[in-house]
Amino acid sequence: MVKKILILVLAIAIKINAQVNLVPNPSFESYSICPNGSDELYLAKPWFKPNTGTPDYFNSCATILSSFNVPNTGLGYCPANSGSAIVGEVFYDKVTYNGPNIFREYIATKLNSQLISGTKYYATYYIRLADSSRYASDNVSVYFGDSIKKNSFDTINVIPQITSPSGNFLTNKLSWTKLRGSFVSNGAEKYMYIGNFKHPITNDTIFVNGGGNKIYWSFPYYFFDDICLSSDSIYCENWITNIKKFNSFDFRLYPNPVVSELHINSTSVDYRVKIFNSVGVEQQLDVNENKIDCKSLLPSVYFLHYNQANEPTTIYKFYKIE
Q: Which of 130, 135, 160, 317 could form a disulfide with 141 if both were Cys (CB 3.0 to 4.6 A apart)?
């Protein structure tokens, strides 16, 4: 009997993991205050830096003069892939820091739940090379493991489970590039780390025209947005694609942002909605005559899952403000 219960619990856990994004604050939309300087990744909690590099947080709420506005960043023009926030990091700098160590930055977060041993996970994420960068990298990698805290700014020496193809230099400055990968969990992974883990001796870059004219722009600097991890092979592929515009011809969600009451305008009379926060926890809200009472929600970004009869789930993003 105990064995059957354990199997059932495991099956339920796998199903839950497959239905949600295991990456918290995956689009960096939730933040404490608007960014105003470098090294402010911590504003988009629970994201953090695992070494002493200085990854940056950008948001449309920041002033243009701060250089951390979206889309007008201090490293060039870069609209978010979705929403109004992005993050950025230095991938490889051997010019400004020409000593024994190579300057590298990483972004990291604790996953919504520890991964399940023997389960295959699928990841998607979007990157874009900064306008000011004169070089591009062919190594954008994701590592899943335990907690890492490195008291220096050089390479974190681990073997990432997901790596972009070697020799495929990521030079796109005009639009976002979608990367993807998969791996089988060993059951010990609690954290996600994104950056360049390649040994400096084997690391490679390529010159890109149109970069900045200052020495500290002689490195690849990449922006990131919309990061997803799921045990469902389809979920992450469709996660951002299914976030439709709010003025869709057959469905409208307003006002957005919302203060107290969210209205639904749908041509369908047979539909269901569920609302999840940025870490995938369902919010129990009252829905009455196409109205949703949102007064109990904390200011943040939320996702409304909309289901019509015999149709796949469509995800809409909205913001709760005070």
A: 160
